[in-house]
Amino acid sequence: MKFFYKNYHKFIISFVLLGVAYHYFNLGTTNINNFIEISKSKKNIQLGNLKKEEWVNKNEEKQYKLLEKEIANIEIIDETLNIIEKDIEIDNEDKKNKDQNKIEKIFVEKGQTFSLILNKQNINKKYIQNIINTTNKIFDLKKLKIDQEINFYYTKNNENEFFFNKLSIPLTFKTEIIVEKIDNSFVAKSVSLPIITEKQFKNVIITNSLYESGQKFNVPNAILIDLIRLYSFDVDFQRDIQKNDKFIIYYDTFYNEKRREVAYGDIVYSNLIIQGKEIEYFIFETSEGFDYFNKEGKNVRKALMKTPLDGARLSSGFGMRKHPILGYDLMHKGVDFAAPKGTPVFAAGNGTIEFAGRNGNYGKYIRIRHNNSYKTAYAHLNGYNKGIVRGARVKQGEIIGFVGSTGRSTGPHLHYEIIFEGKKINPMKMKLPSGKSLKNEELEKFLVHSSNVYSQIIEKLN
After folding, report:
1. Directed axis angle between helix 29-40 and helix 2-27, to 10°?
2. pLDDT category, 429, cuts 50, 70, 90?
3. Candidate CATH numbers 3.40.50.720, 3.40.1190.10, 3.10.450.350, 3.30.300.20; the one for domain 196-293
4. The domain 108-192 is classified under which CATH number: 3.90.550.10, 3.10.450.350, 3.20.80.10, 1.20.1250.20?
5. Can you tell me the distance from the alpha carbon of 336 to that of 307, in angstroms, rounded to the nearest whole number?
6. Over the stretch 430-448, which tens digit does the pLDDT of each residue have?
7. Residue 367 has what pLDDT?
8. Residue 59 and residue 355: Cα distance in Å, rounded?
9. What is the structure's pLDDT at 91?
10. How far apart are CA 179 and CA 169, in angstroms?
11. What residues does 187 pair with on adjacent strands?
12. d(CA 123, CA 403)
């Protein structure tokens, strides 16, 4: 691209010079000589001091203006040539640096140790143990995982040979380990990388499911999953969402400029518009931490979630039905969500694992006690998430297991029950208690915050 840029300007300059020569050929050799004399001495001429009274002849006054214009053109040409010369210098410097330095990026493969990786690099063998010991001081090399990125930096010496001077191990989006050669030893340090934060705005029309429509508008999967979890307290995604409903979402995006990576933060504002009805949520920091509130300052989180998994289809409701295996009518004391095997299942609310294991026709089964009144149950699971055992504490939205077809089941699905004071109730019809409402000073701060967010949203919509 730089090559084209340079030659493009050279072509323009050549074209201008040819135009000037052709112009003065038509004017005559006298004008050309005058132009050359003025061009040679242009630095010493102070055109502003020339008195136009001396140009009594109209033809001479016209020539004066022409010469003034041509001097300006020559100055532009000189300036353009200077820019090109600087570009050439920068390009040569970049090429020199590229020739003097190189980076080798590798990814840890199965069975590789840090020592084996170092030995494959162009590193003096006497330094390898020093590098290992130094790195181990701030990072446990036993935790080096498959596909971990490691960058090796080399610089040319006076003998025109590359020698190793540094390595970097990106640990997270925000941090990396640097091991650098200083004199004849190595120093390791953990470095916090500069992060650029930007807010992204999406206005999405729903044509099929919320999730699929969001993907078409390039809403990141992580943000879509957070959005579904957030609205699962108030929305039945299978029944409530209709074609041409829409949602507005405003969220944080983090850019790691050094490695050009992207991560996603919180949803700052969301508005799900279902058949003209708006359901707005704002994130806000209270004394208890960040949470989501509606425009009146009421916490949108409820005691329990209606749908404890993403993107599932309600395949069987609560009530009497013909049993798909037994063949006769039987009370179905829960709801079934059809979903692919392995789909994550979330805890419907904060609570304690009361049971986790096989439970007869339910197959692999989990039951959570949320308070003195409510329990939830999850059946036909394929398996349990790590740490899900009796007595373990779980938080709302935490993955507890995975959809399966264990027990008496015709295919992968989640059987979900809500038990209120010992009685199984219909999850789709229960009235969920709302979370806390903001009051006094916190409410005043929230209203100011939501007003500021509204201003940003209106600006984006316009």
Report:
1. 130
2. confident
3. 3.10.450.350
4. 3.10.450.350
5. 10
6. 766 556 788 898 999 999 9
7. 95
8. 105
9. 55
10. 9
11. 180
12. 50
- Rounded CA gap, 416 and 318, in Å? 10
For residues 327 and 147, the model is more confident at 147
Model confidence over 146-164: pLDDT tens digits? 899 999 999 887 777 888 8
The predicted-structure confidence for 47-72, as pLDDT tens digits, reads as follows 444 444 454 455 555 665 666 666 66
Could you tell me which CATH class the domain 313-425 is placed in?
A: mainly beta
Which SS3 state, helix, strand or coil, does residue 252 take?
Answer: strand
Share of the chain above pLDDT 70, in %: 71
Per-residue pLDDT band at 377 (split at 50, 70, 90): very high
Q: Which two tokens stand for residue 195?
A: 């992060």
Tell me what pLDDT residue 16 has. 55
Instruction: Please give the pLDDT value at position 56.
Output: 45
Tokens of 95: 């090429």
Domain ranges of the chain: 2-98, 108-192, 196-293, 313-425
- pLDDT of residue 342 exceeding 60: yes
C-alpha 275/C-alpha 310 separation (Å) is 22
Handedness of CA 384, 385, 389, 394 (dihedral sign): negative
Q: At what angle do helices 58-100 and 2-27 cross, to 10 degrees?
A: 160
**Helices and strands (H and E) in the chain: how many:** 8, 22
In the numeric block, which tokens belong to residue 136?
């181990």
Q: Which helix (H) or strand (E) holds 424?
A: strand 423-425
pTM of structure: 0.48
Show the tokens assigned to 403.
């959809």
| Fold agreement between 196-293 and 313-425 | no
Reduce the DSSP state of residue 439 to 3 states and report it: coil
Q: What CA–CA distance (Å, rounded) separates 172 from 193?
A: 10
